[in-house]
Amino acid sequence: MFGRSAIRGGGFRAENLGQNALTLIGNIGFSLFVFGVLIFTIIAATYEPEDPLFHPSDKITTFLTSTSNATLRSDDSVVKTGEDFMLANQTAFAEFININDVEASTNETTSEEEGNKLECDVNTPIDCKDQQVFHLMMRATIDKFKDIHFYKFGKPVTGEEGVNSCDMAWRYRPRDGKSAAFYKDYRRFVVAKSENCSVSVVGIGEYHSGLNARKRKKNQKAGFEKTGGKKDDFSLPVVGELVNDSLPMVESDSVFKTGKYLVYVGGGDRCKSMNHFLWSFLCALGEAQYLNRTLVMDLTLCLSSIYTSSGQNEEGKDFRFYFDFEHLKEAASVLDEAQFWAQWGKLRKKRRNRLNLHLVEDFRVTPMKLAAVKDTLIMRKFGSVEPDNYWYRVCEGDAESVVKRPWHLLWKSRRLMEIVSAIASRLNWDYDAVHIERGEKARNKEVWPNLEADTSPSALLSTLQDKVEEGRHLYIATNEGELSFFNPLKDKYATHFLYDYKDLWDESSEWYSETTKLNGGNPVEFDGYMRASVDTEVFLRGKKQIETFNDLTNDCKDGVGTCNAATS
């Protein structure tokens, strides 16, 4: 009976078997698709990307060699900062002052000057404010320093009392400069007056000798600058100006309690390399900007043992020793941590002040999820397990496309860059530079088999003869501890080393005085990171720059078999 009705219903008729099979296959396929989607969803929800510090992506490994941004590197090299990624605006820099500009300006005042000569008095002191004297000083400066371009001259002021001297400042760039930065110099001019009262410049002092012209009065107009071009660009560093990196003033109670703040607490970033520190610090600063909050920052650093003479990590270093805090506080909203907690504690004691804290203890809580938080302070607290307690983890994953590290806000210390400028100026910005890496790498022949031989004096003389003209000033940036090792090079070149200029950071120097004051009266060591930073920057300002790897040796920078990986 059952069989008949089934047959009558047509379920198992021969002509229906193909259709039923197709339906069954379709149902199985759909079930497999749903199961696959479920598995993929579970994997996506639980997946955590690898730590870029230990497993860098292509973006991480190639970033620092590009001009678009910057990223973390796990080595101990000198870090790149915001100004290194600025593309020099050649249109703006093309508008420099030349002799013809000064001559044209001089001709406009000729008749007035001729009238003044009728009242000649040889015994009258030189008037530094006189236009004729000013134009004479500008012409003498442009004629003397042929390897730099001038963009602005300040009005001359009286130099040493009782001597016919004038001090004048100017803003300039090296003619072949590759960095997007301006420099300031101020020098003392000795001006002589003849019997017919005509004047001439008989001497120009050394770098920064014109101290009376150093400080520019607020809103003071330049004495001379070329019109029609880009007159001033305050988005670029100006090395040589007075530094004001004092702590920003804490706002009044009423303003403070209406503000919004972000602070990072704890974590494993302390005492790591400077590259690691910046990669994490700029993540925090980027999140603060995304959330439109003031970043509460700790200005005390722990300097990694890789930079110290003691070979130990050293606490108590000041952020301002290494970076331009004046630029940072003017361009971003930041507040010193000690100042913040003092003000926070004072206001919390007053019950009428509602200061709410929002605590976040999981780095996977994205900045996007915190955008709606209204509390006064967001505190990100990091644990003790590395690498999940690194600050930069906040900017990974989905946050990477939203939070941008503001590299343009972080510049190198202008005090250190002032030393760089002083060295380059003593060399008249007319020198070639070679970087010679030896040390541990030269001794490790398994990893760098040819480095020691390729950087020996005889090998260097052979290699450099086709790269540097004989008799040139040659700045040698090196980690070789015994500088007499390079004595054979003196037969062909005028060699210069960082330690030839140690007067720029010794006890009588301006750097020593300013950093001691910044450090509460305690002297500051010119540490390994500072030395490497200055050495590198002087090297980069050479007209020719010859690197150890690629130029002096065929060994790979990171050891045997890594050359292709480094360039891929």
UniProtKB/TrEMBL annotation:
GO terms for cellular component: Golgi apparatus. The chain crosses the membrane at residues 21-47. It comes from Arabidopsis thaliana x Arabidopsis arenosa. Residues 124-209 form the DUF7074 domain. Pfam families: DUF7074, DUF7075. Keywords: Membrane, Transmembrane, Transmembrane helix. Residues 255-548 form the DUF7075 domain. This is O-fucosyltransferase family protein. It comes from the Eukaryota.
